[in-house]
Design brief:
single chain; about 140 residues; alpha+beta; seven-stranded mixed sheet; 3 helices; about 20% helix; disordered C terminus
Length: about 140
């Protein structure tokens, strides 16, 4: 049976939504010397040790994550996923907004189970007005035109 990209992304979002940093870490091959994550928001290339520490922030997260899978190319041992990561944010003062993040994940799909070895995350610009959160990709308040 081949790699199920949608299931992989759904399980990862579930770990985030359960505020479980340890389970989130199991989706990444943090000890692989090739591991790297680039986030346009920070402009930094993040190694496994630093990204492991960053995942701890999920414990305090307030948003709900989901993914829209755009495409998955499976090369037998490595799959490249293209998805839109959505985080529904609730802010007492601002109401509800949605951050949309373009995610490209390189996933090793070998015998040890699928694990991300490299990723790139960048904000999806809002189709509407100016982003109220400093260019994070926020689509603004949900339900408002």
């Amino acid at each position: 049976m081949g790699f199920d990209a949608k299931d992989f992304l759904d399980r990862y979002a579930g770990a985030y939504n359960d505020r479980d940093p340890e389970r989130m870490r199991t989706f990444f091959d943090l000890s692989d010397e090739r591991f790297a994550v680039f986030e346009d928001f920070t402009g930094d290339l993040i190694d496994g040790e630093a990204y492991s520490a960053m995942l701890e922030a999920a414990f305090d997260a307030t948003g709900r994550m989901s993914f829209e899978l755009l495409r998955c190319d499976d090369f037998g041992g490595v799959a490249v996923l293209h998805a839109i990561q959505k985080v529904l944010l609730e802010d007492v003062e601002e109401g509800i907004g949605e951050a949309r993040i373009r995610a490209t994940l390189w996933v090793k799909t070998g015998e040890d189970g699928p694990r991300v070895v490299s990723a790139h995350f960048s904000a999806v610009p809002s189709a509407g007005g100016e982003c109220g959160m400093g260019g994070c990709g926020c689509a603004g308040p949900v339900g408002e035109d």
